[in-house]
Structure formats: structure tokens, C-alpha cells
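User: For documentation purposes, I need each entry recorded in a consistent format: the amino acid sequence on its own, followed directly by the corresponding C-alpha cells. There are two entries in this batch. Please keep commentary to a minimum and don't merge the entries.

Assistant: Recorded as requested. Entry 1:
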Amino acid sequence: MHPRTLVRSLVVPAGPDTVWALVGGFATLDDWHPHVPPATVEDGADPDAPGAVRRFTLDGTVVARERLLDRDPAARSYRYTLLDPLALPVEEYVATLAVAPHPDGAELRWSAAYRAPDALVPRVEAAFGDGVYATGLDAVRERLAPGFTSSR
């Protein structure tokens, strides 16, 4: 297994605080991402405190569990790790969702570091990079700036 990185980002013509208000809650991903099933926080934990585990359920079946590693509202970012193997057997997967000021509004960046064999990388890029990250970023842009296009 080799170390890998995965990054998707885009610029939204909205202020960083506005973007963070939409995406900054660890337990609210399904509020703005069109393809993520509803999430619940396990054991009644504070959803924005490190250690909280969000569980995604589809038709009564848990499809993913993720643990919040840290959340920094001042820096407008949070990091989390996958707890259970998904359809793709990646290891040491740690993702970051961050919002930064940009001359045209805010840059929304979703990235991950993980370990996977070479043959698996195209599937990870397609599933996580395009299917989850890019789709979610596009949904944020469309929600906050309908009709605006930018390059990734």
C-alpha cells in the first residue's frame, strides 16, 4: 500500500463565513450534499467535538462510519477518518474539509490522505474524488451561487 492524496476544490463567490456556515457541521453533510445518505451521531455525542462518530445509513443499513479528529471553526476546517472499510479497501484514510478566503469569495477544498495499492487509485479518484467530493462541492456552489461556474 502506497501513500496517496486526493484533492478537489473550487471557488464560490460567497464569503468564507457563509460557506462555512453551510458546510462546517460534521453531522450536517447530508443537509447540503445531494448524494450522501442521512447521518446520525452515535451515542448522543456532541457532533462537533473530536471523537464524535457519524454513521450514514441507507435503507436501514450502515454504509459508512467516520470519526471527527478535529474541528477548528476559526480556521474553517475539520478532519475526519473512516472507521469501517467501504466498497474500496483503503487504509489510513484521513480527509479534510476546509474553507479559505479567496479574491473571488471562498475556496472550498476537500482533500484526503490514504494508503492504497496502485490499481485501486482510479477507483478511489472516481468514487471519492468525483462521486463524493466534486459532487458535494458543486452542490455548495449551486446553492450559494446558482449559475456560477469556476474551474477546479
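Entry 2:
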Amino acid sequence: MRRFVNAAAAASIFVILTGLLTGCSDSERKAVPELPKRICWNAFASSDVSPILPTGDEATVSHRPFVLVEDLDSVTCSLSIDGAPAFMVNATLRGFEDQIDWTSMDKAKPQSINVGKKGILWDIGAAAYFTCKPSSGPGSPGKYINLFIDAGGTPDKAKLPTVLPKLLRQFVEFVRRELKCGAGGGS
């Protein structure tokens, strides 16, 4: 009888140790959750976004259809991992160029990047704007598109200066196509 108890205790210890070791190896193998091939209105390849995403079990992408018709129309796409915001993009249509105001970003000490008519990059995000249709006069609105990317959920901010400009360029090109701005639609 004593052998049976010891064998049962040994089996229990083996199961516990196996569980602990499996738990350790699972945390080492944890990765960015599986994403569709393209995200956010198909504007971005997941493989381009995933280097700046945190690891987790479940990714959720949410957005409404990409439509910018009237001044101040805005669309947002957000990607959350395990319920926490990880990546967000936003496009806003402005009627006048002087409506684009990034002074709130001054505290983040953004650096200029060559994207759109004006592009900036800061510690957790990037922004750019471009002219889709210029205003024909002081009281006549045009189409100026203001774009933001927020990657505040990234675990490795050192990757952002190389990844975000590429993503912002893709976003500019996507919006130009969607709004039929054309290549000559402003820088």
C-alpha cells in the first residue's frame, strides 16, 4: 500500500512540475496574436504592423467603413490585444489647411519626417497631412487630410522610428486612393 501512495505522490509531483514547466515555456513562446493578412480597411499588411505590437492571446480590430465626405469627418481603426489598446490610426477631413493643428504634440518634441505635406514622429506615434483638393479661396473649403498613428501599446519603442514612417506612408497612399486624390493631390 505504501508503494501505491508514493507512486501516486510521485505522479502528482510530476503533473505539477510538468504544468509549471509548460507554463514557463508558454510564456517564453508567447507572441503577437494571429491577425488577418491586412488590417484597418486593408490599408496595412499585418506583417508591417506586428513588429510594434505587444504579445497576447487575442487581437481585436474595430473600425467603421472608411468614409470622409464632410469637413471634420473622421474615421478611426483600433487594434487591441487582450482588451488593451495597442495600435490606432485616424484620418480626418479638414476644409482648410489652417485647421490642422498639432501644437498639442509640442510637448512630445516631435521630429520632422518626409511623409505627406508635413509629417512628424514622436515617442509613441506619427502624424502627417496632405492636400487632396486645395482651397480655391479664403472662404472656399478644400480637402486636407490629417492622419495619425498611435502605437502607445508597443513594448519596444526603439522600433517605432523605423516602423512608423513606413506605416504612415502606406496610410497616406491608401487614403489618396480611397478619396481619389491622385498622385498630384499634394505632397
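Summary note for entry 2:
The first strand starts at residue 38 and ends at 39.
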